């Protein structure tokens, strides 16, 4: 048993391994492994002793396959690694860390085999046709589901694919993509089964998420009559996903960069799509971009 002091704010003291189990797995019984931890609210910051857990996980130390690592668990399936013995957690983290670099080396080698000049061309700069604004959900990688190659899409992702005028991150992305990269298409892509949309439909205080999810609740308020007329809960949920995408498209159209670029160049065009997990296909909501732009500019006209 390793023991040492715990650095803490006035909130609860707890062991590093317990924090790791909560962060990576779930709530669990208290641990026999104890090491320093700084806690600020819901965030846990390991201090001096904790790096020993991952000291041997440097990507440079694994030039060979991750199969040389001690196996934390024969399967990465969540139903089994959640029950992993605590002593194997650090080994599991090392395996999953090293696996990314192994896959990266395989990917890079394959790209060079197919096109020896691939990385030379990639390093010359980007000229993407698309700006993709999607959800942060890990199951929806933009390039993979669209078949696009590196350099073809400028990508921004956040919870529930929102475009909020107070979010400087997405506003900066749109401005850069339109004014500097001169993208031809802007895609707002949501997905059925969106946890952010479902959370917004839940009557519950979600803490720091409240102001973010309020944007989705506002979409519900705007379309309350239509949504309340849908008796099936899943169908209502799916329709809110679609309406959220449409409203975020409107928020994109409200920006000065999009309006002014379209007036001068006839691009970009804004599209609303939804991805389905059940079949892996994208559904085009067939946004009437020109009609939407015309309606929006009655109030939000930012073209000189």
UniProtKB/TrEMBL annotation:
The molecular function GO annotations come to: carbonate dehydratase activity; zinc ion binding
Instruction: Provide an example Pfam family for this protein.
Output: Pro_CA
GO process terms (BP): carbon utilization; cellular response to carbon dioxide; cellular response to oxidative stress
Signal peptide as annotated in the record: none
Specify which residues bind Zn(2+) according to the UniProt entry for this protein: 135, 137, 191, 194
Q: Which Gene3D superfamilies match?
A: Carbonic anhydrase
What does the cofactor field's note say?
Binds 1 zinc ion per subunit.
Organism's domain of life?
Answer: Eukaryota
**Coiled-coil region(s) at which residues?**
none
Q: Where is this region: Disordered?
A: 56-82
Question: EC number(s) for this protein?
Answer: 4.2.1.1
GO CC: one term? cytoplasm
The UniProt keyword set, sorted, is: Lyase, Metal-binding, Zinc
For this chain, the family text in UniProt reads: Belongs to the beta-class carbonic anhydrase family.
Entry protein name: Carbonic anhydrase
Please give the organism. Answer: Triangularia verruculosa
Origin organism lineage: Eukaryota, Fungi, Dikarya, Ascomycota, Pezizomycotina
